[in-house]
Design a protein that fits this description.
The chain is of the alpha+beta class. It has eight helices and 18 strands.
C-alpha cells in the first residue's frame, strides 16, 4: 500500500461511526461522513486492513507519548501526563494502557546521533517544536470478528513534520534491515511482518537546481526584511589602535553592614587615553534598600543596573601598558530618623578581558579618634568620610611613587557584590586570527597570538 503524506484513509470502525449522523458533531465529522458516503458508492475500502490517522483526528499514540519510569507492571500515565497530552491534541480517544499491549515494532534504530547537523541541534535544544503527525495503522482483528474495537488497531509507523521542515519517520525505512514484527494481544497471538519503504521519486538535477534557487531567493528576501526591521544603527569596527568597550553591570547586593536602609553611590574613574562615547555621565546612586536576614548576615538586594560605553585610543609608538578604569563604591545608610552614615568604601578594577564576572569586594570605613565619633554615629548620625573618593586606591593628586597610609585609622565593614558583562571590539582581534602564532604586544596585553 502506498500512502501519501497527510492522506486520510478510513478504517471500518470509522466508516461505521461516521455513517451515523448522530456521531457527526462538527464540520470535520460531517466532512468525513460525506467522503465515506462517496467511498461506499464506489465499492467500499480498497484495503481492509490498513488505514491512517492524520493530525486533525482525535487520536494519540499513548505508546509513544507516555513513557513509564519504573518496571512496575501496574504503572500508567500520570494525571499530569494525560492532561499534557490533551493539550497537544484537542480530543483524545480512549486507549488501552501500553502495559496491556506487549506487541509493537522493535526498536532497531540507534538513538545516538553520530553525525550531528544544524537541524538535529535545533531539534534537541528546543523543548517543544510544533509539528504535525500522521499515523499509518493496521486493523489486526481476527478473521470473522464482527465487532470493531480500537484494541485491535496497531501503529505501523508514524510520520512527523515540524516547523523547521524536518520530516521524521518512526520506525525508520527498512532498507536492508529485516522486516518489523507485530504480535497481537488477542487469544490467537498472531504475528505480522511488514516493511516501510520510501516510494517518492528522486529529484532530477534541474529540480534540485530550481529548489536551490528558490531557497536562495527566499533567504535573501528574509535577510533584507530582517535588515529593514533592525535598521542601520550599528557601530562600525573602530579604527586601528582604538578599543571600544561596553560595560553592562549590576550592583547585586550588600551584606554584613551595621545599619539598615543601605544605598550605594558609585562612579567610574577613567585613566588617561580613555573617554566615554555618548553619555558622559559615569556615576549613579542605587535605591535605598532594607536588609533581610539570610543565614548569618543581613543582606540588601539592589539589583541596580548600569552601563558604560568607553573608548581607548593609544598613542603611536607607545609602549605603555593600559591602565584600566576603576569603579569606586561608597555604601551609605539612611534610617527612619533621617540619620546618614557612611558604611564603607571599596573599588573594583574593570577586568581587562571580555566576559561575565561576579565580583564580591570587601569594604572599610574611616574611624575617628576617641569615642565621640562612635557616639555621634550611633545617636545623631554622621561619621568620618573621605574628602577624596579615589583615596581607597590612589588619590588623584598624589604624585609620590609610594603612598603611605599607615596612620589612617579604618574599620572593616561589609561586602558588596557586583556583576560585570564586558564586550570589547578592536581591529587587532581580527588581525590576530590571520597571523601565525608569535610573541607580540597587542593593544590589550603582552600575549601569544
Amino acid at each position: 500500500m502506498c500512502v501519501l503524506l497527510a492522506t486520510k484513509k478510513f478504517s471500518e470502525r470509522e466508516m461505521e461511526l461516521y455513517e451515523d449522523l448522530n456521531n457527526c458533531f462538527g464540520p470535520l465529522e460531517q466532512k468525513y461522513r460525506a467522503e465515506i458516503v462517496k467511498l461506499r458508492k464506489k465499492g467500499g475500502r480498497p484495503n481492509k486492513r490498513l488505514f491512517s490517522y492524520v493530525d486533525c483526528d482525535s487520536y494519540v499514540n499513548l505508546d509513544e507519548e507516555s513513557r513509564t519510569l519504573t518496571t512496575c507492571p501496574s504503572e500508567g500515565p500520570s494525571f499530569l501526563a494525560k492532561n499534557m497530552t490533551s493539550v497537544r491534541r484537542r480530543n483524545i480517544g480512549t486507549k488501552v494502557d501500553r502495559r496491556n499491549r506487549p506487541g509493537g515494532f522493535a526498536a532497531r534504530a540507534n538513538p545516538v546521533v553520530v553525525h550531528e547537523t544544524e537541524t538535529s541541534k535545533t531539534t534537541a535544544h528546543v523543548v517543544n517544536i510544533p509539528y504535525k503527525t500522521m499515523h499509518v495503522m493496521a486493523d489486526l482483528a481476527p478473521e470473522g470478528k464482527t465487532e470493531n474495537n480500537q484494541e485491535d488497531e496497531y501503529v505501523l509507523f508514524s510520520v512527523k513534520i515540524d516547523a523547521n521542515g524536518q520530516i521524521l519517520v518512526k520506525p525508520d525505512f527498512n532498507g536492508e534491515m529485516p522486516p518489523y514484527r507485530i504480535e497481537t494481544c488477542n487469544d490467537l497471538r498472531e504475528v505480522y511482518e511488514y516493511t516501510v519503504e520510501h516510494c517518492s521519486s528522486q529529484m532530477t538535477s534541474d529540480q534540485r537546481e530550481q529548489e536551490f534557487k528558490s531557497f536562495t531567493e527566499l533567504y535573501n528576501r528574509h535577510a533584507l526584511y530582517l535588515a529593514s526591521q533592525v535598521g542601520p544603527g550599528f557601530d562600525p569596527v573602530p579604527d586601528l589602535g582604538v578599543l571600544r568597550m561596553n560595560i553592562f553591570g549590576e550592583i547585586v547586593s550588600a551584606k554584613g553592614f551595621d545599619y539598615d536602609g543601605l544605598y550605594v553611590h558609585f562612579f567610574l574613574d577613567l585613566p588617561q587615553k580613555w573617554r566615554p562615547t555618548d553619555d558622559p555621565v559615569l556615576s549613579g546612586v542605587t535605591q535605598t534598600c532594607l536588609t533581610k536576614l539570610e543565614g548569618e548576615d543581613y543582606v540588601a538586594h539592589f539589583s541596580f543596573p548600569f552601563d558604560f560605553s568607553l573608548v581607548y585610543q593609544e598613542d603611536e609608538d607607545s609602549d605603555d601598558f593600559i591602565h584600566w578604569p576603576t569603579l569606586f563604591l561608597e555604601v551609605l545608610s539612611l534610617d527612619s530618623w533621617e540619620r546618614f552614615r557612611t558604611e564603607g568604601y571599596a573599588y573594583i578594577t574593570i577586568p581587562n578581558k571580555a566576559g561575565s564576572y561576579n565580583v564580591e569586594v570587601n569594604t572599610w570605613r574611616p574611624i575617628g579618634n576617641g569615642t565621640c565619633p562612635d557616639m555621634r554615629r550611633f545617636f545623631i548620625g554622621g561619621s568620618p568620610e573621605l574628602e577624596d573618593p579615589t583615596y581607597p586606591q590612589k588619590p588623584a593628586m598624589a604624585d609620590e611613587k609610594v603612598l603611605s597610609k599607615y596612620f589612617f585609622r579604618t574599620a572593616a565593614s561589609g561586602s558588596v557584590t557586583v556583576k560585570f558583562h564586558i564586550m570589547q571590539q578592536c581591529q587587532s582581534f581580527m588581525d590576530s586570527r590571520t597571523k601565525k602564532t608569535r610573541r607580540t604586544r597587542t593593544i590589550l596585553t603582552d600575549s601569544e597570538e
